[in-house]
Amino acid sequence: MKNEKTVLFNQARIQERIVKDWQELKQKGFDQHDSYLISYPEFVNYFKNVNPINKHHLIIGIHFVYGWMPRVFSFTSTDFDESVRCLNEVNSGGTLSDTQIEVLKGLLKNSLVGTSKLLHFINPSRYAIWDRRVLRYLLEQDSMPHHYQMKETQTFLNYQALMNNLSEQDFAKVICRTIQEKLNGQIVSPLRALEMVMFYTDKKKYGGKDEKQ
């Protein structure tokens, strides 16, 4: 039975909006001094050079993920062994179950935002970053999404499925190549490119503070 809090996404509608919004966004380009854009490749490269991932890498990874978030991290779980197994599965190209996502979510202060960033840095071609700006874009609403929507695991999995489907389309590869050119050759995956269009379109429209993309 479907959870009433679970959000479903209209892929065709979202693809249409991303293509349109990218045409506007690319005219302005990106701020080369944006700290998120400067730090992003360093975080991804850190995990490229790590195999297998162990507790040491997990703890370091969590803390640079929280450098992109507006709060200090403290552990609410110590399920390190299972979390490390999950991360190595992702590092090997695997897909996590809802139960495994819940394990990581529990370790990261019940935050799917933090979980998504950690997963993305480990495998940027499989997991897309998830935050409130992205969900607001997807929902086409002016107010920020409720916290319960951000923490709903099935909605998160629906989002990952949506993004993986979109990233395989030709339009996503075109956007990806153009973003890489605008970032002076910085490598980003199609998943990252699509998420950037949503995030920066929302930021352009609403301004204000964000969850440190």
UniProtKB/TrEMBL annotation:
<protein>
    <submittedName>
        <fullName>Uncharacterized protein</fullName>
    </submittedName>
</protein>
